[in-house]
Amino acid sequence: MISDKNDSSHHSEHDEKLPVRLLDRLRNRVDRYRELGRARRQRLESRAFVKRGHPEQPTTDLLGRASQIVAGTARPVLSAKDFDELERRIGYTIKHRAYFLQALTHRSYLQFVDNPSLRSNERLEFLGDAILNLVIAEYLYGEFESLPEGELTKLRSRLVSGASLAQHAVDIDLERYLLLSSSAQAAVQRGSATLLADAYEALIAAIYLDGGMDASRNFIYRHIITHTRRDELMLSDHNYKSMLLEFVQGRKLASPKYLTVREVGPNHARTFSVDVHVSGMKHGSGDGRSKKEAEQNAAREALEFLGVLPPVALAHPPDTSDGE
Predict the structure, then answer these.
(1) What whole-number distance in Å separates Cα of residue 210 and Cα of residue 73?
(2) Is residue 265 left, alpha or beta, with left meaning phi > 0 and alpha meaning psi from -120 to 50?
(3) How far apart are CA 240 and CA 258, in angstroms?
(4) Which residues are bridge partners to 260 per DSSP?
(5) What distance in Å separates the CA atoms of residue 156 and residue 151, rounded to the nearest whole number?
(6) For the CA atoms of the chain, what is the radius of gyration?
């Protein structure tokens, strides 16, 4: 009995010495497994219910509860269906949804919901920014061996700029999964790029924590690097998609939408045709050997149409003099 008492005292002292961060991490892990277990049971029960010939159950959140939109917020907590859709859009199989729930939670949402387990994505944004810069720097260092540090820095800035990341977020329709206040969502719909760019960096961090460095590196290569042509990155000082995004943001318009309308040719020599829409109206079209190149050309035409850039035909007019 004395030994038990000593053991109890020893454990108490040991617990007190454990770093608070480690204890929080352990608690979060236990809570996460419980949440995932409840969500999985809910999905299985829902599927069995549908198989028996009943209509589908109401959408449920991560905890298996019926979702409801809280006053002041833009949407309910993410459901299992939302996570399934998100997986398809980002091309990654999620193991621990809690990381992604945090990545998609803006601080404005927490003002209206009474859920101590929810945290904003600000810390994940910090981590995602570091991971993104590392992967991009690693790629540029190996790809452009003759460029000096200053030029590499310029290329990295183009790839990780807020406008570029916001456009990547638009490409995967990230906005529809964000947990925001109604006012924050209105800012996004008016063209605010900062919130989308921050969420995209937080998403990268969530992938890193969930699947490791290889998973986050694969995501960055697939969604950012491999969609950027090497010659386009080197030869052009203008990212027309970013220029168009900045232009419409300055006029409080919705972010541009790029639609692939045609793909022709064999896999090794494919050509893509893309239309860009602003506020629901087509403003430009472009072709290219990659979707990103076609999107850049479409954005360039849209900028010409809007009067931001001179038409290509007028930018370098032919010499019509007859020698007089």
Answers:
(1) 27
(2) left
(3) 13
(4) 274
(5) 9
(6) 24
Alpha-carbon span 286 to 301, nearest angstrom: 7
Distance separating alpha carbons of residues 80 and 100, to the nearest angstrom: 12
List the domain boundaries for the chain. 17-58, 69-226, 242-314
Q: State how far the Cα of 252 lies from the Cα of 189, in Å rounded to an integer.
A: 8
For the chain, what's the residue count? 324
Domain at 242-314: CATH code = 3.30.160.20
Which CATH number is correct for 69-226, 3.40.190.10, 2.130.10.150, 3.50.50.60, 1.10.1520.10?
A: 1.10.1520.10
Count other Cβ atoms within 10 Å, centred on residue 192: 17
Locate 23 and state its tokens: 């204890």
Which residue's entry shows tokens 């183009």? 158
- Give the Cα separation of 199 and 246 in Å (integer): 18
pLDDT in tens for each of the 324 residues of the chain? 445 545 555 555 555 555 556 666 666 666 666 656 655 555 554 454 334 443 333 344 554 444 567 777 878 888 899 999 999 999 999 999 999 999 999 999 998 888 888 899 999 999 999 999 999 999 999 887 767 888 788 889 888 989 889 989 999 999 999 999 888 888 888 877 899 999 999 999 999 999 999 999 999 999 998 766 565 565 454 578 877 887 888 788 888 999 999 999 887 788 999 999 998 899 999 998 888 889 989 998 998 898 877 765 433 333 333 333
Q: What is the DSSP string of 2-50?
A: HHHHHHHHHHHHHHHHS-HHHHHHHHHHHHHHHHHHHHHHHHHHHHHHH
Catalytic residues: 129, 201
